[in-house]
Structures are given as C-alpha cells and as structure tokens.
Amino acid sequence: MQLVSTNMTLLAQTTRTEIAFLSDIHLQDVHADLNSAEFKGVLNPKTGKFATIRTMQSQLNSTRLFNENYFAFISALEDLKEREIQLVVLPGDFTDDGQPMNVIALKKILDQYAEDAGMRFFLTTGNHDPVKPFGGIAGKRDFLGKEGAEQAIAGAEGLFDRQTAITEQINYWGYSDITGALRDFGFFPNEKDLFWSHPFQELEVDNYDFQKAKESSDFKNRVYPIGDSSQTLPDASYVVEPVEGIWLLALDGNVYTPSKNEWKGSSVGFNQAAIHKRHQLDWIEKVVHEADKRGKTLISFSHYPLMEFHDGASDDMKSLFGEQKFQLARVPSLETTKLYAKAGIRLHFAGHMHINDTGIYHDSTESHVLFNIQVPSLAAFPPAYKTLKTLNTSSFEIETIQLKEVENMTEFFDLYRMEYDWLSQNQDPRIWDSTILASQDYLDYTRNHLIGLTRSRFIPSDWPENLAVLLQNLTDSDFKAWSEMDKNEGEAFLYEKVENFKAEMIDQVPAQSIIDDFYLLKNGDELGKELIASERLSYYEELIPMVISKDAIQGQSINAQLIQFFVIFDKLLHSLPSDHFSIDLKSNGIQKIND
C-alpha cells in the first residue's frame, strides 16, 4: 500500500463533482403533530410551541441523541447550501425508527432544500428506518411529559403498563410506506437522472428508457426469496447516474428473519447480507463491469460498513472485552470484506457505527482493493459529515466537516431542567448529571454526551471491572513505574492498587481518565485526537512503546489485560487519515492533507 502525494496543479485543471455524505441523522420530529387526544407534547415557554421530545435521561443512556440532532441536521444542510454542494447522500438511519411523523418531517425538510438550493438527495435504508419490513405497532415510553415526568406514546392500547397516549404516528412504517413517501430521493427513477436501475432488472445502459425503468421500479418487482420458502422480502438497492460520469451505488444491507410470526431485523449488516442477499453480489459485479466499460466513477454507499473499522484492533478487542462487547458483532469478517472487494467495490461510504474512520483492504496481489469510509453521525460524537470531490476518474479528496455551532441547540434546555427537578423531587435514581446543560456548543454537547454514556453504560457493561478501576485511577507515574516491572512484579503492583482503590473510593468518578481518551480515539479517530492535550499525546508516545514491548501474553490477569489495552490504544492512536485526505485508486494510495 502506497502513500502518495497529491498533484494540486493537475487537480485544479480537472472538473470536479462534489458529494456530501450525512449519516445516522436519526431524525425525530421535535414539533410533531401527533394527532393524539391524550398528548400534544409539552409546552415550551421559550418558544410557545409544543415539544415532542424524548427525556434527557433517555438520551444519556442511548448511543445517539434524539432531540438536538434535529437542529444539527438543519445546520448541516445550511452549511451545504452555503458551500453550494448539491448532491447529498444519506447512508441510512435517516429517521429514528421510520415512524410516519419522522418520515414525513424528513420529506418536508428535503423537499425544502431541493426547492430552495437545488439539492438532490440519495438515500439508502438503515436498521432504524424500516425496523420491520412491512411495518407494525410500536411505541416509546420515554417522551418528556407534563412537569418533567415521562410520557409513554404507542400506536395501540396495551403496549405499556402505564398511562399511554395513542397515535398511529408512532408506529413503524415498512419499506412500501417509507420509500413511497421518499420516492424522489433515489429509491425510484427520476427524470433528472441519466440512468437508474435496480438488482432485479437488466442493466440496459445504452438503451436506457426512463418509462421502462419507472415501470420496473415497482416494489413487487424488487423482492428476493427467503431461503427455500415462498416468502419474499423487498430490496431497496439501486444504482443511479445523477450527473455525467458518476454512478452512485446504494446497497440495502438490511436483513430480516422470521421469528414468532413476525419479521426480526438485524443490525449486523453485510456478514448476514452476504448470506441472505447473495443476489446483490452478482448484481454488484455487473454494475462494476458496466461502469468500468464506460469509464464511470462508481461510488458505493450503504448503512453498513464493508470492513473492520477499529484500525485493525477488533480482534484484540474481542480477546480483551469479549466478542459480544463494544458492538463487535457488527464488525464485518475478513471473508465478508473479501467477497465485496472481489465483486469490485473500490470506494465505499458507510455509517451505522457513529464513528469516524478510514479502512483499507487489499489482497496479497492488490488486485482487489477496497477503501471503507466511515461517516460519523450527526446525532453523536463526533458530529460531522463528509464531502467527496472527484478530482479525476480515479482520484478523490475527502474532507470531514465538524458541526460545532448549531442554531437552536439550547431550545429544550429549560424543559430538561424541569425534568431534572421532577427526578430530584421524586428521588428517582435515574437522575442525570446536569452539567451537560452547560455545554458551550454542539461539539462540546456531544462530547459530554459521550462522557456521560461512558460512565453510565459503557464501563459497567463492556469493561472488566478491575481494568476499568485501574485505568480511571492510576497516575502517570503509576503507569510509568508499572511499565518497567516484570510480569510477576507488575501483577502484584496492580493487584495492590486495585484493592486500595476499591477500599478508598466510593462512587467517585475521575473527571478525566485514559478511558475517556480511548473513546475519543475509537469514536473520533483524528477528530478525537485533536481534543487530547498535546502533553497527554506526548506521554502516550513515550509510555506505549515500553508497555507493548512487554510480553503480550493472553489471559485474564490484570497485568495481561492492561498490556492488551495498550496494544489496542496504540492501534487507535496511529490510524490512517480520516479527517482530510486524498485517495488514488490507480496507486491504491491514501495521503493526509494538512489544512
């Protein structure tokens, strides 16, 4: 694999197409008309509007925000409007569970920017869009209600064992309803496009006929059989040429399996799609062949990643934390990556994991090379989207744009304070850390959300207890001293420290620890690294080589666990460029661009 420099003189002479990728928006209509007699929302004195929002307590226990991301999406679109970027891809989870109120809100927003700014939007489905392929009854128990208490909302009676507001607006929509409402955004052919096709029709590029494509695009023609049964499921994949020379390949990676008379969705992605949607691989090969034959630039996108996204540390993480921790079941296997690379995918954009990352797969001869670009979520840290500039048919510039300032970010903060007061007065143990309401901007807000989530959920559920205690409480000098000890001395030293910390502590949580830096790197990559103080980075660069030179033994001893942790940390710390960089498909090179 080469690292190549960018010839800016040549690039300046090349006509560029610029595409934005906004992933995992998880849009929830924060001012929805619920059409419910029992609940209109909670009146916000600040705006005079009824707010249909989830509680802060629920946000701080979720890997995504539910409320402020609505405003982040608008801010991102305004930014794109100012940059005059008109091709916009949404790689799944564009709604929060595909409810009518959220799909309709999304359509209204996209229609507005299509009309006002001439934007074209191209969507693919995520696991939070059609949660069930044919829809179903649904509900949420954690909306913010009167005086700060929780309010349950459901699509039918009997879903929750508490007073519940009933509205069909909260139910799941399936493929037919969601793609029907959003039909203008890639799911169906559009007269503006030069070419459009789906996996179940011939790729008639030379004799493309819009009317024929339109007739073929009905979802009754876009289904695949489930195993040996007569049952079929929809596949919303498509390929489109919105501008001359650019083919966007949208892969629907959702997989559903029958379970107790209903369809159960999966969040695993292509590890299962490679099995249950084999027809996609054959179709990808045909698309790649036709694109190459015509000199088209093929850019694929899906909700799910096509390769490992922890900088090569996933196997180490499985060994240390366990295969079911850290959402490691969602990591594509090497065999899965090989299949899609062999089918011809070269440049792929994905979401799903709410992280910023760049990955490269290449076989031993480099005859199959795949670049997987992880687009961060607008609803989590780091809040960002990516842009791609086509510099020529094989060279690209990719930039990650962070959302720092978001207009109206604090619109619901007084309502959260009301919730906090209600929890305090009722001595509810779910009370949360109110310092998040002092966040200075949206970047700070999502970082504080990550810190709170780390304390309340990630550490208790994913980390070996003794390892977490050590990483939160050992001093720099403790780490340095331990790094110079042999195995037996180090084990005794760490064991004594753990016992002392447990005896002294109580419920104290350090304001900042190496675990926080770990999550900044794991989720933010280069964007997270920028938030770690330079003296901390220098300290890690000095400490880690000493640690990983120790015997990297496998096992559950405290000593072994700490060594394994630093092996993982080192890989996350020294990652491929993921902020602003160029990719050259001829040389298979990637180069960081220093702004």
From TrEMBL:
Pfam families: Metallophos. Keywords: Hydrolase, Iron, Metal-binding. It comes from the Bacteria. InterPro entries: Calcineurin-like_PHP, CNP_phosphodiesterase-III, Metallo-depent_PP-like. It comes from Echinicola arenosa. Belongs to the cyclic nucleotide phosphodiesterase class-III family. This is Metallophosphoesterase. Gene3D superfamilies: 3.60.21.10. Residues 19-355 form the Calcineurin-like phosphoesterase domain.
